[in-house]
Every structure is written in structure tokens, then in C-alpha cells.
């Protein structure tokens, strides 16, 4: 019956493609999951449990600490927000103890801060955390999200059959469009497909897509994601454009494991890769150096470049990786990453390796310093497990 249901839906849906005008640049904001997971015990963890209190204090901080004005606009709820049962009309209901005022009131609070709100559901029979999911309720769920004033929906892929992903993700997006409220559509579709991920199809139906493993709070996890996206860049790059971005998961900056150098690597690479920038940390305990990285306007400007091109790895050898992203006005951003574990050394990028001709003005985006004019190559001292990120601007 599930197959038949989806077959009928896919007939209705036909050949639509998502065209909601959203995510012209990668979305930025804050997302619960990596830091706060599925903490539902508010007695023991009153400040950290998934509750309206967490999202309200986060909205307050995004504004008061200067994140919002740099583009961090989405306050996103992830798994574990609903009651374990739908109501008598078949609608999802927020957990009554943890969200006593309901989702609409929370959305209003967030909107009154000039921010946007995201929510989470799952395409299968249950969410990953075991909460009610959307497979037989797509029309109801998209409609109630719209009624609540939701601005973004993440559709996860637990407890679902791989053979149904394509029709299911398309159908949900079609129902989102039918509500006539523009809601940014975040799909977990390719993350659940082992190989030959159908990026062309996904990019036609999703604003952003989670493409691989969930990030964990460790440098190994960050590096594995960077390497995966470098190794598979030629499959993905053709489909990334304004309105369609490859989501390589949340930022760890502000959490526990990354050093300052490693945090800079993550921020630099996520910007080169045109990835969504979702902080997943407690904004109340952010250290100044962590905040300085997240609020680096010059690197955010690379991430948000209007061309919406995903960058690529052009060199990988001797514990060095060079990455380039082509920007508006014939400029480029370059990240030189060192994976050495001993000492800082000079590392170079030749302009021919990025298919560009000098001379260029070169500016260091972490030091906020102009480094001068370079004709055929650029080199800099890069710290162990660190990064130098520069912008190349053609001579006038």
C-alpha cells in the first residue's frame, strides 16, 4: 500500500521542480542537533533540553551578539520536538511540557527578532529519534508547518525504503509548494544513498541536501567530510548553484573538540565549498576566539558570494591541500590547508593550478591584511593542522 500511495502521488506531482526563490546564497543560522542532540530530560538539563527555552535564548543571542546582522538568520529545531502521538485530527503536536506555548508562538517570537524558524520531520514511518514522521501525512504536515509560520523544513530519511526516496522527497516538496508559504527545503535524500547519488534529480527538488555522514564533535569527522567532498567534487559541483547547495553538515565551532587552527580550517573550507553555515553550539558559552571566527565578515562574504559556485580541491599531496572557489568580479578565494603535525612550513599555490593568470592583489581573510601583489604564485607559512585563506583580486 505504501508503494501504491507513493506511485499515485508521483503521478500527481509529475514533472514539477522546486522553484521557491529561496537560498540564493547558502543559508546561515543555528541548528540544534550536533550540540543538543535529543536531550529531553529538562529536570536534569534545564538549559540544554530541546525546549522553547533553548530556541528563545538562542534567538536572543543571535541578535545581541551580532550573528544575525551578518546573516545567521535561521533558528532551526531538529529531531525530538513533537509529542509521541499525533492529535485526534492527525496533526503533529509539539511536546506539551517542553513547548508549552506551541510552535506557532515560538515562530512568532523568532520572527519578532527579525529571524526565521526551521523545523524537522522525516520522510519515513518514524524520525531517527523515534518520533512520528511524515510518510502518510505529507499534506497535513506541510500545511501545519505553513500555518505555524515555519520558514525552513529539514526532511530526514530514517525508517524509509531507498526505493521510495526519489518519489517521496519530490512529493513532500510538491506539497510544500502547494501551501504557498515559501519554506526552504532541506533534504537528507543523498545521505541515505550509498553510491551513485542522483544529484541532478536532487538539485531540481531541494534547496539544500545533506550528502554524507553526520558530523561529530571531532577533527577526524571534519577532515573526513572535507576529504569526501574533495574526492567526489566532480559529481557534485555541476549541480550547485543559487537555490541549490550541498550541505556538508553543521559547524563545530563553539563546541568541545576543535582547536583554534582546526576551527579556522572548518570555517574556511565550508565557505570555499559554498556550504550552509549552521552553528550548532551553545551561544551562551562561546569563547571570544570562536566568536571571532564565526563573525569573520570577509570569509562569510566568500561563503555568500552571489555566483553560488562550489569550490574545488586542486592539489592534495605532502600533507597539503589547496582549494579554490571562483567568485564574482573574476576574483577567487584560496585555502591552503596543512595536515602536518610537526611545524609551520611554507606552502604554495600556483595560479596556473587554479586556471587563473596573475597579477593579483592578495588579501589574508583571517588576518584582514593586504599581502601585496603576486604574479604567478602565492606562498605562505601554514600552521600544523591549520589553514591560510586568501582572496585574489585581479589588478585593475
Automatic annotation (TrEMBL):
Enzyme superclass (EC): hydrolase
Signal peptide positions (record): 1-23
GO CC entries: cytoplasm
Pfam families: Melibiase_2 (PF16499), Melibiase_C (PF17801)
Alpha galactosidase C-terminal domain mapped to chain residues: 318-392
Catalytic activity: Hydrolysis of terminal, non-reducing alpha-D-galactose residues in alpha-D-galactosides, including galactose oligosaccharides, galactomannans and galactolipids
GO biological process: glycoside catabolic process; oligosaccharide metabolic process
This protein's record includes keyword Hydrolase: yes
Source organism superkingdom: Eukaryota
EC number, UniProt record: 3.2.1.-
Keywords: Disulfide bond, Glycosidase, Hydrolase, Signal
InterPro entries reported in the protein's UniProt record: Aldolase_TIM (IPR013785), GH (IPR017853), Glyco_hydro_27 (IPR002241), Glyco_hydro_27/36_CS (IPR000111), Glyco_hydro_b (IPR013780), Melibiase_C (IPR041233)
CDD domains recorded: GH27
GO molecular function terms noted in the UniProt entry: alpha-galactosidase activity
Family statement drawn from the similarity comment of this UniProt entry: Belongs to the glycosyl hydrolase 27 family.
Subunit structure: Homodimer.
The protein, known as: Alpha-galactosidase
Provenance organism: Hydra vulgaris (Hydra)
